[in-house]
Specification:
Strands 1, 2, 3, 4, 5, 6, 7, 8 and 9 form a 9-stranded parallel sheet that branches. This protein has 9 helices and 9 strands. The longest helix has 20 residues. It has a single domain, classed as Alanine racemase (TIM Barrel), CATH 3.20.20.10. By secondary structure, the protein is of the alpha/beta class. It is globular and about 50 Å long. Bound molecules: pyridoxal-5'-phosphate. The site of pyridoxal-5'-phosphate has 13 residues, from strand 9 and helix 9.
Length: 226
């Protein structure tokens, strides 16, 4: 594994991985806990999509990287209601919309700010108590209300298999998420075009199952510092 913060190694690694991805799959480089040097190296390798899981940490990095004007910032971690405004001020994508209540809050603040962020609904395809996200029944029940939130671009689903899921089971989960996206689009309530699925350990399976956005950290940068 490449060492964190060796820019040449990061660039080489990103080029290698990027070359294996289908052109239609968007690579979001997950840089939580990494120093800005690692983000600069990724930028030099052509990365323009960065994923962070904490709002405050991302804001600090954005200030450091203010000279890099064409970055798209993706919020991928659990978002607390009291951070919603800051998140909307600092991210163009929110992958972790995990409840109707949060979606409604984001919608209201987006109206106030005059922004229209891209959002993914985080869904739990199988029960997974430690994680947040919509359960399937809940999602279908709340879809009409979600479809009213016109200040959000609700264009995606995000899903993460439970910790320790075996590859074949992960494949089934990703395929179910893909089918769910199709069913939602067919219901004409939302048009789901993006599937945010796949991390370092399972992104190849996710891509084979229809993922359009992979969120990769460890495989690009090496193990994260604690
Ligand atoms: C940390 C994180 C990732 C990246 O995980 P790796 O295994 O390091 O690729 C992707 N998605 C989310 C939601 C994460 O929190």
């Amino acid at each position: 594994m490449t060492a964190v913060c060796n820019p040449d190694a990061i660039i080489q690694r990103i080029n290698q991985i990027q070359a294996t991805l289908p052109p239609a799959v968007r690579l979001v480089a997950v840089t939580k806990k990494l120093p800005t040097e690692a983000l600069r190296a990724a930028y030099a390798a052509g990365i323009r999509d960065f994923g962070e899981s904490r709002v405050q940490e991302a804001i600090a990095k954005q200030a450091d990287l203010a000279d890099l004007k064409d970055i798209t910032w993706h919020m991928i971690g659990r978002l607390q209601a009291n951070k919603a405004r800051k998140a909307l001020e600092h991210f163009q994508w929110i992958h972790s919309v995990d409840s109707l209540k949060l979606a409604e809050r984001l919608n209201q603040i987006s109206e106030e700010l005059g922004c229209r962020p891209h959002c993914c609904l985080q869904v739990k395809m199988v029960p997974d108590p430690p994680k947040s996200g919509f359960e399937l029944e809940e999602l279908w029940a709340e879809l009409p209300a979600l479809a009213q939130l016109t200040h959000l671009k609700l264009v995606g689903l995000m899903t993460i298999p439970p910790q320790g899921t075996a590859p074949e089971a992960a494949r089934a989960i990703f395929c179910q998420a893909r089918d769910l996206a199709e069913q939602i689009s067919q219901s004409q309530q939302l048009q789901i075009k993006s599937l945010s699925m796949g991390m370092s350990g399972d992104y190849q399976i996710a891509i084979a199952s229809g993922s359009t956005m992979v969120r990769l950290g460890t495989i690009l940068f090496g193990p994260r510092p604690d």
